[in-house]
Amino acid sequence: MNRLPFNLWFILLAAILIAWAFSLTSHQQPANQVAYTTFLNEIDQGRVAKITVDGRQLNVTRREDGDQYVTFAPGPIDTSTIREWGDKKIQVDIAAPRRENPLLGFLIPLLLIGLLIGVFFFFSRNRGPSGDNAFSFTKSRAKVLTEAPKTSFKDVAGCEEAKEELKEIVEFLKAPARFHEMGARIPKGVLLVGPPGSGKTHIARAVAGEAKVPFIAASGSDFVEMFVGVGAARVRDLFETAKRHAPCIIFIDEIDAVGRRRGGGVGGGNDEREQTLNQLLVELDGFEKETSIIIMAATNRPDVLDPALLRPGRFDRQVAIDAPDVKGREQILKIHAKGKPLAEDVDLSLLARRTPGFVGADLENLLNEAALLAARDGRKKITMKDLEEAADRVMMGPAKKSMVITPKDREVTAYHEAGHALAAHFLEHADKVHKVTIVPRGRAMGFMMPSRQDTLHWSKKRLTDQIAVALAGRVAEELIFDDVTTGAENDFRQATDLARRMITEWGMHPDFGMVAYQVREDTYLGGYDTRQYSEDTARRIDEAVQKLLQEQHDRVLGLLTEKREVLERVAQTLLERETLNAEEFVRVVEGEKLERLEPTSETPKDKEEKEPPRVVPKVKPNLGGA
């Protein structure tokens, strides 16, 4: 059974003591009390045998049945009344006066007051280094680093433009007087915008480290509570703390938790959040001109922030921390590779080219996975093979080496992936092959990894080639097996999404023109679409998407039919070797022989020897116009 916390035991004990004290100072009311008028009527009727007088309280005994009850006189009982009762043959006794301790009425209230004061101080004192207690919920939860962080701009890579933007902030914090003398107004707030893991918090620490000023870090969720007014009080306390440590930097991570657009909800937590946002806006405006406090905030949802938060005078400057380019990824890899023993064959520039779209957190995780793989195998250095395997694990998940796969499934997967690879190789504008494998990872039975370059603009020819590559796996199955499987599910999603966006967003279809039928609100968390067309237009779009996909299907069908011999050669090599890198794939396509693998107990060669070879049909299937 779970034990109650000490503070709950303390509250329970205090409640018992208070109840006991009140029981001493209160008189118990008798259960058999009657009205004084009823008592007088019974006297007139001769029903009263005995009366015991105890001040105003009268204990009465009846004649007939001896029942007793209690009544209270409206005033003191005088001797004439007692004599009158005696004349009516009623026995009247006078109770002895009670002797009460005069200190009891003084000590018990004093005990109650002292007990309440003790309870208050017990809960109001700090409980641990964080000062978190029942009466400190209006205090800011921010972490104050009075000493400047050790991080500097040298520890930040992949965002050179952002560092240039922030160097001005560093110069101001180092020498604010120089800017004030010129009448310059430094930006009060800097909003760091970027995808998750891009290093927004890291670069904020680097600014404080470069300027050598205290760093006060908080999260947007720290301000919002169920009690109305708590968030606003915490904002006030945060800025009071900052003024005591000026010059300094306030950093609020995930500011969208408190800075969302107002008016979106009614009552409850929404009202509390809006009060907190209002107080934050007031504090941003309340900075004196000479106050050397910079507030930095980070978000990956800039589209939901309140416009008042982004106007000049508050968050004057927005700095984009986007995913790094190939040069930035190489620099980030070099930073995270410090302290890790790398083998001579490691080429970080090649790894950087292979990982487009990776942010700093992804690259750090990649190197960590590679180090774990090397340590697991008992090696002293991280090899390029470890890094390649780690990249596959980060993108696709771990290899399912123990997964039982039938020979038919392996063969279908081999031809499916060979179809993707050949389409990518022979189509002029498609991304070329970096690796093709039939080793299962995640939910994929195999995959073809393209050698994708960092591209800002995608041409129509490249998009149509990418659609053709996505459909090539299904086409290879139709061509070789005269049947299809469920393996192209994700391929269809990618191809359909590209085709629909070409029509509705990018104006790449002649029948629809340069009209934005669908608006995608760009966020760093995937975005969402807003439909802006009628049902009739929706029907026409569906027909155009289907037609575009069918055109690319027929196009890649003609290509693979022409290259069928190459398709079978690549698929059979995949069945033998399971994985082909870019160089090996090109050699197989060009008809060169690869060096034979040494057979081991775990190689697929042994598995294939136990199964009879399958005769691949050479007849082109009747597609029936599909």
Explained architecture:
The chain is α/β, with parallel strands linked by helices and 626 residues long. The protein has four domains: 36-94, 2-Layer Sandwich (Signal recognition particle alu RNA binding heterodimer, srp9/1), CATH 3.30.720; 143-262 and 272-320, Rossmann fold (3-Layer(aba) Sandwich); 326-396, Helicase, Ruva Protein, domain 3 (Orthogonal Bundle); 407-590, Up-down Bundle (Methane Monooxygenase Hydroxylase, Chain G, domain 1), CATH 1.20.58.760. Helix content is 46%, strand content 12%. It contains 21 helices and 15 strands. A six-stranded mixed β-sheet has the order 5-7-8-9-6-10. A hairpin with a 5-residue loop joins strand 2 (57-62) and strand 3. Helix 16 packs antiparallel against helix 17 (489-504). The longest helix has 28 residues, at 535-562. The two termini are 67 Å apart.
